[in-house]
Task: structure prediction
Amino acid sequence: MDYQPYFPPITLRKVFRKERSPSPSSSEITACKVFDFESEHLIQSQLPVEKMECGNNLIPPLRGSLSKPNSSGYALREVLAWGDDMYDSVQKGLHLVCKKKMDMNSPYHLQWPESLSAFFEAAQEQFPILTRYQDSWPARDFAKMYLKNKVGSDKAKVKTRNRMTDNN
Result:
Protein backbone atom coordinates (compact mmCIF):
# COMPACT_ATOMS: atom_id res chain seq x y z
CA MET A 1 0.00 0.00 0.00
CA ASP A 2 1.30 3.40 -0.99
CA TYR A 3 1.86 5.84 1.75
CA GLN A 4 0.79 9.39 0.93
CA PRO A 5 1.23 12.01 3.56
CA TYR A 6 -1.66 14.34 4.06
CA PHE A 7 -0.91 18.02 4.31
CA PRO A 8 -3.89 20.10 5.24
CA PRO A 9 -4.08 23.41 3.40
CA ILE A 10 -2.22 26.18 5.15
CA THR A 11 -5.22 28.46 4.98
CA LEU A 12 -7.01 26.35 7.50
CA ARG A 13 -4.34 27.10 10.06
CA LYS A 14 -3.56 30.68 9.11
CA VAL A 15 -5.74 33.50 10.32
CA PHE A 16 -5.80 36.55 8.09
CA ARG A 17 -6.40 39.96 9.54
CA LYS A 18 -9.11 42.00 8.09
CA GLU A 19 -7.33 44.69 6.10
CA ARG A 20 -8.63 48.08 5.41
CA SER A 21 -8.99 48.86 1.72
CA PRO A 22 -6.53 51.50 0.62
CA SER A 23 -8.22 54.84 0.24
CA PRO A 24 -6.78 57.62 -1.89
CA SER A 25 -5.22 60.55 -0.12
CA SER A 26 -6.76 64.01 -0.40
CA SER A 27 -4.06 65.07 -2.87
CA GLU A 28 -5.05 62.22 -5.18
CA ILE A 29 -8.71 63.16 -5.05
CA THR A 30 -8.24 66.77 -6.09
CA ALA A 31 -8.33 67.60 -9.75
CA CYS A 32 -4.84 67.78 -11.16
CA LYS A 33 -3.50 67.79 -14.67
CA VAL A 34 -0.93 65.19 -15.61
CA PHE A 35 1.43 66.48 -18.26
CA ASP A 36 2.72 64.15 -20.90
CA PHE A 37 6.36 65.19 -21.31
CA GLU A 38 6.67 63.78 -24.84
CA SER A 39 3.69 65.67 -26.24
CA GLU A 40 4.61 68.89 -24.40
CA HIS A 41 8.16 68.65 -25.74
CA LEU A 42 6.92 68.08 -29.30
CA ILE A 43 4.54 71.01 -29.11
CA GLN A 44 7.29 73.25 -27.75
CA SER A 45 9.80 72.24 -30.41
CA GLN A 46 7.25 72.86 -33.20
CA LEU A 47 6.78 76.50 -32.24
CA PRO A 48 8.29 78.79 -34.83
CA VAL A 49 11.51 80.36 -33.65
CA GLU A 50 10.10 83.86 -34.21
CA LYS A 51 7.89 83.36 -31.14
CA MET A 52 10.89 82.66 -28.90
CA GLU A 53 12.74 85.96 -29.28
CA CYS A 54 14.79 87.18 -26.36
CA GLY A 55 14.92 90.68 -24.88
CA ASN A 56 17.42 92.13 -27.36
CA ASN A 57 15.19 91.17 -30.32
CA LEU A 58 17.65 88.53 -31.50
CA ILE A 59 16.48 84.94 -31.64
CA PRO A 60 18.62 82.88 -29.23
CA PRO A 61 20.23 79.59 -30.26
CA LEU A 62 18.30 76.45 -29.48
CA ARG A 63 19.24 73.89 -26.89
CA GLY A 64 19.70 70.29 -27.87
CA SER A 65 21.44 68.42 -30.62
CA LEU A 66 21.15 69.50 -34.20
CA SER A 67 19.22 67.06 -36.42
CA LYS A 68 18.34 64.76 -33.51
CA PRO A 69 14.71 65.64 -32.77
CA ASN A 70 14.01 62.29 -31.10
CA SER A 71 16.80 62.86 -28.58
CA SER A 72 15.62 66.22 -27.26
CA GLY A 73 17.25 67.92 -30.20
CA TYR A 74 15.78 69.80 -33.12
CA ALA A 75 15.37 69.66 -36.87
CA LEU A 76 16.52 72.94 -38.40
CA ARG A 77 13.93 72.97 -41.20
CA GLU A 78 11.03 72.64 -38.76
CA VAL A 79 12.38 75.06 -36.16
CA LEU A 80 13.15 77.88 -38.56
CA ALA A 81 9.72 77.65 -40.23
CA TRP A 82 10.96 79.63 -43.24
CA GLY A 83 9.10 77.66 -45.86
CA ASP A 84 10.67 75.15 -48.23
CA ASP A 85 11.76 77.60 -50.95
CA MET A 86 13.46 79.98 -48.52
CA TYR A 87 15.09 77.17 -46.54
CA ASP A 88 16.42 75.45 -49.68
CA SER A 89 17.82 78.65 -51.16
CA VAL A 90 19.57 79.62 -47.90
CA GLN A 91 20.90 76.09 -47.52
CA LYS A 92 22.33 75.98 -51.05
CA GLY A 93 23.78 79.46 -50.73
CA LEU A 94 25.46 78.67 -47.43
CA HIS A 95 26.91 75.48 -48.90
CA LEU A 96 28.58 77.60 -51.58
CA VAL A 97 29.87 80.05 -48.96
CA CYS A 98 31.22 77.07 -47.01
CA LYS A 99 33.11 75.85 -50.06
CA LYS A 100 34.68 79.28 -50.58
CA LYS A 101 35.56 80.17 -46.98
CA MET A 102 36.23 76.90 -45.15
CA ASP A 103 38.48 73.88 -45.33
CA MET A 104 36.29 71.17 -46.84
CA ASN A 105 38.46 68.38 -45.39
CA SER A 106 37.83 69.33 -41.75
CA PRO A 107 34.66 69.28 -39.64
CA TYR A 108 33.26 72.50 -38.20
CA HIS A 109 34.98 72.26 -34.82
CA LEU A 110 38.42 72.05 -36.49
CA GLN A 111 37.98 75.13 -38.70
CA TRP A 112 40.29 78.11 -38.22
CA PRO A 113 38.68 81.10 -36.41
CA GLU A 114 39.54 83.33 -39.39
CA SER A 115 37.67 80.96 -41.73
CA LEU A 116 34.64 80.96 -39.44
CA SER A 117 34.49 84.74 -39.15
CA ALA A 118 34.85 85.09 -42.94
CA PHE A 119 32.07 82.53 -43.38
CA PHE A 120 29.70 84.35 -41.00
CA GLU A 121 30.46 87.72 -42.56
CA ALA A 122 29.75 86.43 -46.07
CA ALA A 123 26.67 84.52 -44.90
CA GLN A 124 25.13 87.62 -43.27
CA GLU A 125 25.94 89.72 -46.31
CA GLN A 126 24.31 87.23 -48.67
CA PHE A 127 21.35 86.39 -46.40
CA PRO A 128 20.32 89.36 -44.22
CA ILE A 129 17.69 87.21 -42.47
CA LEU A 130 20.58 85.64 -40.50
CA THR A 131 21.15 88.93 -38.67
CA ARG A 132 17.89 88.32 -36.79
CA TYR A 133 19.51 85.36 -35.04
CA GLN A 134 21.98 85.61 -32.17
CA ASP A 135 25.47 84.81 -33.51
CA SER A 136 23.84 83.75 -36.82
CA TRP A 137 23.27 80.31 -35.34
CA PRO A 138 21.26 78.96 -38.31
CA ALA A 139 24.32 79.58 -40.53
CA ARG A 140 26.47 77.77 -37.97
CA ASP A 141 24.08 74.81 -37.97
CA PHE A 142 23.93 74.67 -41.77
CA ALA A 143 27.74 74.71 -41.89
CA LYS A 144 28.09 72.04 -39.20
CA MET A 145 25.79 69.64 -41.00
CA TYR A 146 27.26 70.34 -44.42
CA LEU A 147 30.84 69.84 -43.29
CA LYS A 148 29.93 66.75 -41.28
CA ASN A 149 28.23 65.17 -44.28
CA LYS A 150 30.94 66.28 -46.72
CA VAL A 151 33.84 64.99 -44.59
CA GLY A 152 31.95 61.75 -43.90
CA SER A 153 31.15 61.10 -47.56
CA ASP A 154 34.75 61.88 -48.59
CA LYS A 155 36.06 59.39 -46.02
CA ALA A 156 33.62 56.76 -47.29
CA LYS A 157 34.76 57.35 -50.89
CA VAL A 158 38.41 56.93 -49.87
CA LYS A 159 37.60 53.68 -48.05
CA THR A 160 35.75 52.39 -51.10
CA ARG A 161 38.66 53.30 -53.40
CA ASN A 162 41.11 51.60 -51.04
CA ARG A 163 39.04 48.42 -51.01
CA MET A 164 38.81 48.47 -54.81
CA THR A 165 42.59 48.82 -55.19
CA ASP A 166 43.23 46.14 -52.53
CA ASN A 167 41.00 43.67 -54.38
CA ASN A 168 42.77 44.22 -57.72
Notes: The two ends are 84 Å apart (CA to CA).
